[in-house]
Amino acid sequence: MNTVVQARQLGKRYGRRRWALRDCTVDIPAGHVVGLVGPNGAGKTTLLKLAAGRLEPTSGAITVLGGPPADTPGQLARVGFVAQDAPVYTQLTVAEHLRLGARLNPRWDAGLASERAARFGLTPAHRAGRLSGGQRAQLALTLGLAKRPELLILDEPVASLDPLARREFMQGLMEATAEHAFSVVLSSHLVSDLERVCDFLVVLVDSRVLVAGEVETLLATHHRLTGPRRDPGRLPAGQQVICASHTDRQSTYVVRTDAPIHDPAWTVTPLGLEDLVLAYLDRRPAGDPRTPLAVRP
Question: How many other CB atoms are found less than 10 A from the CB of residue 72?
């Protein structure tokens, strides 16, 4: 598998004690739109900033597109990065942003930048601080796309946008990836947005990758089982329990398995992407009697 980001025991510490990311190992494949999800504090933003060369690791190693992040101007030009809250210079006009992008990026696509600015109503003379939140997000995405990166990293780019602006942003991202065929890593708490654009999923919890794989394969191999109360030890060996809940008479499991499930005692239902993500975020020991947030019959 060709990778765009490869991390091994990667860690970032602030000060003497606070680790924002620790012992993280992950392979992010090329040629995909990768959704990176996890709870607050999981290390997603730190991982993406390390990949973009915005931070230096405290421990471990990370390579991006086969080399150290931001190691040379050429390497830096291969990666686009859009941070949270669509960072732009509020006192600069749209035209000044595009001229700055052209000066800083050797592969700058002026035609793409101008076309996107016109399509999303980014009037050249308007200062960025006067744009709507959705327009600022589109300006930030335009700057990332027009540098023609091989890898585009997006950290919660639509978290503060209204639903219409989120939809327009995601639609623009889908169109750009289809036309220009670059790799994308996108972090978001909004799984419904990831569902529209991502074909590969990485779930990160406490710096640890709990699951990673192509979305189609993950959905095909994860199932919800509902039936008479049953101890997890009685499940077939090939069924990995992701999370479970029990009442006095009923058990509900989310399991991962490659084999067909033929047990007539179980009602088997497929999972959506949000169900799958929530199951991993709410993993508990299979015998935990609490009602889990992730398993909703």
Answer: 10
